[in-house]
Hints:
single chain, alpha+beta, 4-stranded antiparallel sheet, 14% strand, globular
Amino acid sequence: YVRVLLGGGASIVLSVHAGPIDYATSTFVRVAELFAAVPLPVPALLHHDDALGIIAQQDLGDVTLQAQLGGASATGRAKRYREAVGLIVRLQQRGAELASPAYPPYGVAFDHEKLTWELEFFVRHFLLAYRGALPEAPVREALRVEWTGIVDELAGEPRVLCHRDYHSRNLMWHEGTLHVIDFQDARMGPDTYDLASLLRDSYVDLPEAAVDDLIDYYYALSRGTAATAAESAAFRRRFDLMALQRNLKALGTFGYQTTTRGNPVRSEE
């Protein structure tokens, strides 16, 4: 990604690929079109050159949600997170209405195979490669049994449209509102997936009271009513299980970035 200053204070961002592209069939472009139809606030696609492998996008600036939180009051932080949760609900509800094989996310999902692969990715790149742990066969078998239980439950949940990497560094604060970036890996998954990504963020630690409040807010907004005690407990269990799976995968990514790519800077996906 390259920022180009056009003069007079205007700028655009160029997405420069390693080779030629087919703009019309690009997953990034198709997902951008889907998210714009929701609508979600995403960067406008301005120009493209297939032969050069370049897509010009609206420049949303440098202020992520993570950065914006630093100077915000407690009330301001709560408002930003409620706004972010509202975008998740909009994506899920309108995503169901817009479902079409013309859009790539509807053809891929967090299914049994994908979720299992991510947990094994954690074992391979974090436990073994990064931490240097050498679990014996009984421990590996115990992990496999645990993975099976987690994956069976998560893969069996009803699926909604998910951003897939919805956290404070992929939400930009631009002209007084949040905008969504890095959405090209969108797919179908549990309704708790994006919520867990946001509230159990690797980059921002939210107070537990704030997490509880935002989970309740999501539930009421998505269902149109407050949860009963039983519903709240059941949903919280699903949320916690999803957060566990996702953050184990994130640890695997951190290990992979460090040991395989030589990049010690944390990158969630």
